[in-house]
Amino acid sequence: MRKSGNKVLKNSFSPDLVEAGCDEAGRGCLAGPVFAAAVILPRDFNHPLLNDSKQLTHRQRTLLRKVIESEALSWGVAMVDNQEIDRINILNAAIKAMHLAIRQLKQEPQLLLIDGNRFKEYNNIPHHCIVKGDSLFQSIAAASVLAKTHRDEYMLEQHQKYPVYQWDQNKGYPTQKHRDAIAVYGISPLHRLSFRLEDKQLSLSL
User: Fold this and answer.
1) Where do the domains of the chain lie, and which CATH numbers do they carry?
2) pTM of the full predicted structure?
3) Residues tagged in the binding site annotation for a divalent metal cation
4) Which end of the chain has fewer CB atoms within 10 angstroms, the N or the C?
């Protein structure tokens, strides 16, 4: 275990099982995909900055991403796009993204540690749902960093196509400027139509 601020992040949940931490990013956004990551860390992994990605600066997350991708025993990142989110709902889309990320792991985990309180069994692998797990377990924190940084990178690329929404600043989250841009310019092909984008739903603007 190691301390992160006032909290202690645990290296593992079980004494001897191969564990993969899983987390998602972008669940509350108005636009873009939801991303998820799965990470298997060495049992002796340690980095003084590692924490829930929401508690880190952009620079810290970028640094940690390089460390995690280099030192993890295995990792995977996957996304489910906004059209699929509208079709199956955001909870199911986030779980599907986690499943896709787990599928990418080169080593099959024996236990899955899931951030949050909802999950659907994957490939008969036992799992534990842990509320605020990204601030309790290193593998989940690592997954949160990868999911967040990969999604932010994607949204920065999309900002070049749709600069009016200022995704370089809000990454698709429901800031006032984002909602104001939707009111003025309409909805992009990346917006989630099943979400409340403003007081009145707008027709798709292509």
Assistant:
1) 2-154 (3.30.420.10)
2) 0.92
3) 23-24, 115
4) C
